[in-house]
Amino acid sequence: MRQDLPLFPAAASTGAHQVDAITYVWLVVAAFFSLLIAGLILYFMTRYRRRTPDGVGAATGSPLLLEVAWSAIPLAITLVMFAWGARVFFYIYRPPSNAVEYFAVGKQWMWKFQHPEGNREIDELHVPVGQPVKMIMTSEDVIHSFYVPAFRMKQDVLPGRYTTTWFQADRPGTYHLFCAEYCGTEHSRMIGSIVVMEPTDYQAWLSGAAPGQSIVASGAQLFESLACNTCHRPGPGMAARGPRLEGLFGHQVVLADGRSLVANEDYLRESIVAPAAKVVAGYQPIMPTFQGQVTEEQLVELIAYVKSLSATPGDGTPVSAEASRAGAAATGPAIAPGATAPTSRAPATPTAANPAPPGR
Ligand code: CUA
Which domain holds residue 80? Predict the structure, then answer.
């Protein structure tokens, strides 16, 4: 019914229904108390009005029960509000581990998308219904914001770093995509659509669209053509000039200056465009910068490739669409022989038995 009212936008994702539920329930609760209070004001105004010009109200004493009640009841209501809100917040901000990763690059004034299978789109993103979709987003220039009202989802897209968001569309259709951050002259025209399709239609669309290679394969190709592999030599062997990248993503890295961090997308990106910023302990800052030599899309491909080197069954970092769709237990890309299979989080302090995982 409510879908028919123009007042309410279409709700087309699992998160949207949760956001709507919380909105409507609290709207009703707020309306109830507003009416109750306004009604009581009117009632008391007449019931206890001054009846003679020199009338004085009777002393009421201190009704303890009443005072406790009007503190405890609102406290209980607001605690429920907090707990429910926190639950929905965590649902919205924590992508499930089986989410498939799609990439978005914002630029003045368009949205560029890349599927894990390698398909590229501009201002239009096709996704299958019922599949958790994680968006990894960055900007080529200024701040944009990825906003899909039907999914109740809005996330800033920033230059120089990655932000993420996720959704699981639950009804096929075409939904508006807006840029929700003023980004220049044609900000208002930086719009597009999210096309949610039945899985079979989506597969047909994927194979019908310009065939490409998977994002991981593109990254692997770049890795070679940029000669990254001369220093970051894959597989076993002598220590190379650069840290080995297998098992890096999602694991602890100890830096030359003693700091340590967990290798995420932002770290990988920075290590490509500003390699001197965070040098891994035991290595020299000899890597040249690739700033300006790789586009944001290529950076995303390189990162997807490096992530694929860390994908093991069950470690919660699906990097290929095939692996993700088949479920977390499916086989990930094979670990090169001799490479340490990352089966658990590395300890904060590397020891002889648990050396720091290879960095950058
Ligand atoms: Cu991009 Cu506004």
Answer: 1-40+65-212
